[in-house]
Design a protein that fits this description.
The chain is mainly alpha-helical. The chain has helices spanning 29-36, 51-105, 109-119, 127-143, 146-159, 164-176, 180-193, and strands at residues 18-20, 26-28. The protein has a domain at 89-193: Serine Threonine Protein Phosphatase 5, Tetratricopeptide repeat (Alpha Horseshoe). The structure holds zinc ion (2 copies).
Length: 194
């Protein structure tokens, strides 16, 4: 029993549809169908398959091509949807940060801190989360909770050394607690970060 040069399984000449190149290299019909998507030459001897044979598979190959295109389009659509969602999320987040900054200006510290803590993610180190950490530090500082401010701001600058405003409020909080050396240390980091 001959075996197919694509899948290497036997070809039952009575039941399996099959073809061969001019050098008589046998191949299952369904294997050849897949193969013709890649090449019009025999995978074994590289001789071109006769045009008459390729024509038989033309419709199928066109259909496959179309399916591939549809799948690709869907993939692209999904990708752009995800991107748009990301942009939308970013805008929502920036609006949130704006609002928090505005409420800090309005001295609504407790309200701001509560909302920031809702959004704060202990395990994330992305820019948004660092922004939240900074505002938590700033709001606590302005509220007079210097210990908590130091807590948040220290967490922040440990993740992102280059955060001058973080060091600024950290220094101010140390200063308020009379920790002059530590305050100086923080203020010195501002210059380094810049
Ligand atoms: Zn096969
Ligand atoms: Zn061949």
């Amino acid at each position: 029993m001959p075996s197919c040069i694509v899948c290497h399984l036997n070809i039952d000449e009575n039941t399996d549809s099959h073809y061969a190149c001019d050098n008589d290299h046998p191949v299952h019909k369904y294997c050849l169908t897949e193969w013709l998507m890649h090449s019009h030459n025999c995978p074994l001897c590289s001789d071109p398959y006769p045009q008459s044979l390729i024509v038989q598979f033309k419709d199928y190959m066109e259909k496959k091509e179309q399916e591939k295109q549809v799948a690709l389009d869907k993939e692209l659509q999904k990708e752009s949807q995800i991107k748009m969602q990301e942009v939308a999320n970013k805008i929502v987040f920036l609006k949130f940060i704006d609002k928090m900054e505005q409420q800090i200006e309005e001295e609504k510290y407790n309200e701001v801190i509560e909302k920031l803590l809702d959004q704060y993610n202990e395990s994330s180190v992305d820019d948004g989360n660092l922004n939240i950490l900074f505002l938590l530090g700033k709001a606590n500082f302005l509220k007079g909770r210097y210990d908590l401010a130091i807590n948040f701001l220290f967490k922040l600058v440990k993740i992102r050394f280059n955060y001058p405003d973080g060091f600024l409020y950290l220094g101010k909080a140390y200063e308020k607690l009379g920790l002059k050396d530590k305050a100086q240390w923080a203020f010195d980091r501002i210059k380094e970060g810049k």
